[in-house]
Design brief:
Elements lengths: L22 H4 L2 H10 L2 H8 L2 H8 L4 E4 L6 H8 L3 E6 L2 H13 L5 E4 L5 H4 L4 E6 L10 H13 L1 E12 L1 H7 L7 E3 L4 E9 L2 E7 L5 E6 L4 H10 L4 E6 L12 E7 L2
Parallel strand pairs: 1-2, 1-4, 2-3, 4-5
Antiparallel strand pairs: 5-11, 6-7, 7-8, 8-9, 10-11
Bound molecules: S-adenosylmethionine (SAM).
The site of S-adenosylmethionine has 20 residues, from helix 5.
């Protein structure tokens, strides 16, 4: 029996696909499975260290809402570290993969399918922290959606809650231009990720795997200071930005930034 996996669909002109709701069609199961099997969680945990766990513990966080659960990497780490964790995502496929991964690691995850733009409708409770990790916020293609999502996150936090949100360093990609595009390698040379098309409104990333399969994700290139400004405009009082899980990022350009936004 043949199992036909749905393919990614970007239509005739992929660089015109700039739509917030398109993420559910980009994370097709074959892509997600490949990613998880090549970048095994142990290696990922080693490279990330305890950055997020230490950060949350230091602030006395107990209840966490993971709004970009994906296949569950951070939710499982948070559960293992003892945080009360609710795992949300807009993709039902991602959540079922996450739930199965949770079981494999000995956790029964509390999962909720919810799009960030209407988070309060589907997720209940108030949280000490919301985490939105793995360069997920980049999937929002209009400023209105970004503001709406941040406002929903803000509303679900307790009065002294924090939002932890990471993003790729798009300033480097946009400012260096398309010609000097940098290829990111994960797992040595096994998976390569490179920007295939870049303008101020779209970075189209190409993911190549050792079996020659290729997938893409269309992302909005968030400039660091723009993300910080939006967070402060929806009401966050203090925003600290880390580079590549380090407190200082002078010198070498980091590949990722992590914003920690405090509500009071
Ligand atoms: N945090 C996970 C990780 O690091 O492995 C997953 C990251 S994955 C790049 C982005 C996730 O965000 C996907 O699971 C996708 O379904 C989810 N997502 C994107 N846009 C969303 C939205 N508007 N509402 C809810 N989930 C969304």
């Amino acid at each position: 029996m043949f199992i036909v996996h749905p393919a990614q669909k970007f239509g005739d002109n992929p660089v015109e696909v700039r739509e917030t709701g398109h993420y559910t069609e980009e994370y097709v199961p074959s892509f997600v499975e490949k990613w998880d099997s090549l970048i095994d969680w142990e290696r990922r945990a080693q490279s990330e260290g305890d950055f997020f766990i230490d950060l949350l513990r230091k602030r006395g966080v107990k209840d966490v809402l993971d709004v970009a659960t994906g296949t569950g990497f951070h939710s499982v780490r948070l559960l293992a570290a003892g945080f009360e964790t609710v795992s949300a995502d807009g993709s039902a496929e991602m959540l079922s993969a996450a739930f199965a991964n949770g079981m494999d690691h000995g956790h029964v995850m509390r999962v909720v399918q919810a799009d960030w733009r209407w988070l309060n409708r589907d997720v209940h409770g108030a949280y000490d922290a919301i985490v939105c990790l793995g360069n997920s916020f980049t999937h929002l293609f209009s400023e209105r959606d970004r503001r709406k999502a941040l406002a929903e996150f803000y509303a679900m936090l307790k009065h002294d809650g924090i939002l932890v949100l990471d993003q790729r360093n798009y300033d480097a990609i946009l400012d260096d231009g398309y010609t000097s595009k940098h290829t990111y390698y994960y797992c040595g040379e096994d998976v390569s990720v490179e920007p295939e098309y870049v303008d101020e409104g779209l970075v189209r990333m190409r993911y190549s795997f050792p079996d020659d399969s290729v997938y893409h994700l269309n992302m909005f290139p968030l400039r660091k200071d723009y993300t910080r400004r939006l967070m402060s405009e929806v009401g966050f009082q203090k925003i600290e930005t880390y580079g590549d899980f380090q407190h200082t990022y002078r010198g070498e350009q980091p590949d990722f930034f992590v914003h920690v936004a405090e509500k009071e």
